[in-house]
Write a structure and sequence with these properties.
Blueprint lengths: L25 H13 L9 H40 L5 E5 L2 E5 L2 E2 L2 E5 L5 E7 L5 E6 L6 E5 L14 E10 L5 E2 L1 E15 L2 E6 L2 E4 L3 E5 L1
Antiparallel strand pairs: 1-10, 1-13, 2-3, 2-8, 4-7, 4-10, 5-6, 5-8, 8-9, 10-11, 11-12
Amino acid sequence: MTITGLESVGGAVSGLSTPRPNEMGKDAFLELLVTQLQYQDPLNPMDSTAFTAQLAQFSSLEQLNNVNKNLEHARLYQASINNSQAVSFIGKDIRAIGDTISVNNGITDSLFFKLTEQADDAVVNIYDVNDNLVKIIETGALDPGEQTMEWDGTDNQGNAVTDGEYRFEIMAYDGSGERVDAATYTAGRVKGVTFKDNKAELLVGNRPIALGDIIEVKD
């Protein structure tokens, strides 16, 4: 009697979850090996080389399971650290990579962006949550570097927009009509923390912001 199906041993490190039904765990491996020894033909015992190889495979499987457990512990430990760090941001003003702004009680967030080079002409387009264009702001020429603009909270007809979340983009061009790259930022005070898919995200207004997107923090 020989042991087969050991090709799936390497799958033990493919994820941090328990083995799938088609994968052999170390307990099943050991049980199969013991059963093999019990029912082998006394007149034709298992070859010692094959037996040694199977023991080595069992040892490797056990080590892989231990590595799997250690990785899971490390992941949980790192997650707890990230969660603790996220809570410490509550009450602080942050700036992060993003293109969303809020309107609360008619008051709008400032628009932050950065140009890679001089722009001879630029406009800011503001969209609602349904991607409808609600406002076009012509800025004229802009210098390279960081820029801050204000929006009065009205649409293209001069009517006040409703409170909520909006998205903005920068369309900037140089003297030759070539597009100038612009990076947009979102900013505001952190009101709380939410957890999604085991990841912590900061709440600025109703906007979730990933920790990795933060580029500036102020008290």
